[in-house]
Amino acid sequence: MRIDFRMPALGADMESGTLTQWLKKPGERVRRGDAVAVVETTKGLIDIEAFDDGVLEELVAQPGATVPVGAVLARIASDSASAVPAGLPAAPERPPAPTSPPSASPAVPSTAAAPGAVASRRRISPAARRRAHELSIDLASVAGRGPEGLVRLEDVERLAEPALQKPQRTGMRATIGAAMARSKREIPHYYLAHSVDFSAARDWLSGFNASVPVDERLIDGVLLIKAVARAVSEIEGFNGHFLDGQFQRSEAVHVGAAIALRGGGLVAPALLDANHKDVKTLMREFSDLVTRVRGGHMRSSELASATITVTNLGSEAVELLFPVINPPQVAIVGAGAIAERPWVRDGVLCVRPALTLTLAGDHRVTDGRAGSRFLRRIGELLADPAKL
After folding, report:
1. What is the largest CA-CA distance in the chain?
2. Residue 339's closest CA among 353, 328, 351?
3. CA atoms within 13 A of residue 283's CA, in its CB half-sphere
4. 74, 36 in Cβ contact below 8 A?
5. ω before 328 within 30° of 0 (cis)?
6. pLDDT tens-digit profile of 227-274?
């Protein structure tokens, strides 16, 4: 069966992406989850993965081309009898969740056309290429100070330092603005807040981190992600997508983690199957994800698969935030700073490290009663972290 390999939707308001590199050649065998192409969007360079096992037959789009969402990038001779044949209408596909944790593979340099013939032949990191494009800098004029003359992000920013005094991520900011405007326009949000005593979690974290090497220590944000993954798998109505006028519950729990980018902007790629992984595995995957995201490289399965999002502004000393749902998801959990606050425990006034959790829910799917149970369950799980 011959099928179309299409440009996926990697965000609620993504309209197109620029193909920068093919990672497979015609005649090569591909398996479901294999990275086949690299696409550049306002969020960075994204590895686009195959949806079926088969053989790559034909490359339809060429590097440098801007391709609309849903348009054909290539054609694959699929091994699957259930594959959609080429030429038949097909909805933009969601990237598959890999069967194993994403690996921390090095970013692949893009071969897209760049200003100056010299730039296309030099070793240039994806983050440096993207930043040079944002700042309209000819890469031929940038001296590479990395290994073997590699042009790095800091090399580009050093040359453009005067221009960096003002925000440059206008493309990403426009994309975020469009997605959030759509969210507030289409989704009837309701908001809830719930404060929890974080002392048990903090004590457990201190004991655990004292017993392991520095590179294996955990952060409180990973405990929160795990607690959200557990709670959302237990309480109906918060894990999935609202599509075609109805809620589509997801059996898989892929928790999007909001990550701030260098220079401004943010993305929320997913930690896949978070409810089935222990906190040590989630910590490793989260660290790897942050490194790759801030280096300007992600996988399509991470970017488009999130079924619920967690956003944490605790490092910014913000106590309370009211986040906006990322469509087509139906819920987002926010976390503020963990701070010492007055607390009544067993009728006695004391001081405890407290965390305020917030929930933005979609009133088309749930209401405040269900939302309160969900937030309360997250708090209960954080109060017994050894069982997470």
Report:
1. 73
2. 353
3. 15
4. yes
5. yes
6. 999 999 999 999 999 999 999 999 999 999 999 887 678 899 999 999
Strand 297-299 relative to strand 44-49: parallel, antiparallel, unpaired? parallel
3-state secondary structure of 226: helix
| Gap between the Cα atoms of 84 and 88, Å rounded | 7
The per-residue pLDDT for range 199-235, each reduced to its tens digit, is 999 999 999 999 999 999 999 999 999 999 999 999 9
Q: Burial letters for 247-258: b for 16+ Cβ neighbours within 10 Å, e otherwise?
A: beebebbbbbbb
Residue given tokens 């975020």 in the structure block: 176
For residues 19 and 73, is the Cβ–Cβ distance under 8 A? yes
Strand partners, 353: 340
Question: What are the b/e assignments for 76-104, b being 16+ CB within 10 Å?
Answer: bbbeeeebbebeeeeeebebbbbeeebee
Neighbour tally for 73: CB within 10 Å = 22
